[in-house]
Write a structure and sequence with these properties.
Layout (H helix, E strand, L loop, with lengths): L1 E4 L25 H15 L4 H5 L6 H6 L9 E2 H4 L3 H6 L6 H10 E5 L3 E3 L4 E2 L9 E2 L3 E2 H19 L2 E3 L3 H4 L10 E10 L2 E4 L2 H16 L8 H9 L8 E4 L7 E7 L1
Parallel strand pairs: 1-3, 1-8, 8-9, 9-12
Antiparallel strand pairs: 2-5, 3-4, 6-7, 9-10, 11-12
Length: 258
């Protein structure tokens, strides 16, 4: 099982910790691209128009300025740096024992700066999204497409891919159509009608991720087993679960909330 999450927009900057050490991160084959993006981000973030280039508002100027010194900034496990609704529900920083070991093997964050991040990877807080066309590097989804394929295609060929990413991060890597690939979406049911939700979707995807990591049963290996595992949340966190038919691309697992 490979659970893919997007990074959080907001991040908790570590108060202290060792400086960045790329060679200690998972997926070391991505380091040449990490170096290029990191250097380009530092250069852009020192410019007067940095916020505009990075697609953020003036209120985030301090976070953008922090990108300049990322190599020397304090780091902490990504499970603690990534915050927000999804990560609060997933509770990755609180995992221990078999659940933590499962997360280390099965969960990856797809990142505009690092490519892939494991929960224990030590990273600083940063500000960069996958939709950015970064001067000196190019559109980040395109930059990461080839290295992520080299890193993930072999796993995707043999493991169930549980895809909780947004569209911008999906553009950086798509499993082959023949693989066991399930995209997770969240619907709200109100007065018998179902509609797509955004804020609650993050929470519900986080709940599903935590459930998959902490349940005692073996990991699901196909879409039907994933739907059954999600169905264990019906009556508590979920109202219903629906698995779409097989076709080209990802199958869709709809998690219905009220």
């Amino acid at each position: 099982m490979l659970v893919l999450l997007p990074p959080s927009e907001g991040k908790t900057a570590p108060a202290d910790g060792p400086p960045l050490h790329l060679d200690a991160m998972s997926s070391p084959a991505l380091n040449p691209w990490r170096e290029k993006v990191l250097d380009a981000l530092a250069e852009v973030s020192a410019r007067p128009d940095a916020a505009s280039v990075l697609g953020v508002g003036p209120s985030l100027a301090a976070e953008v300025a922090g990108n300049v010194g990322l190599r020397a900034a304090a780091t902490a496990p990504a499970a603690r740096v990534y915050t927000g609704v999804l990560y609060a529900a997933a509770g990755l920083a609180d995992l221990s024992g078999p659940a933590a070991a499962r997360a280390a093997m099965s969960l990856r964050v797809v990142s505009a700066l690092w490519g892939l991040v494991a929960p224990d990877d030590a990273i600083p807080a940063y500000r960069l999204s996958m939709g950015v066309d970064l001067p000196g590097v190019g559109p980040l989804a395109r930059v990461w497409r080839e290295p992520l394929a080299a890193e993930l295609d072999s796993r995707g060929a043999t493991e169930l891919v549980v895809d909780c990413r947004s569209a911008a991060y999906l553009a950086a890597w798509r499993p082959a159509a023949a693989q066991e690939w399930v995209a997770v979406r969240v619907l709200r049911e109100l007065d018998g009608k179902r509609s797509v939700v955004s804020h609650h979707a993050k929470h519900t995807r986080g709940v599903l991720a935590r459930h998959l990591l902490t349940r005692a049963a073996p990991e699901p290996v196909d879409a039907e087993q994933l739907a059954a595992a999600a169905g264990e949340l019906v009556g508590s966190e979920l109202h219903d679960v629906e698995l779409g038919p097989a076709g080209r691309g990802a199958r869709v697992l709809s998690l219905v909330v009220r």
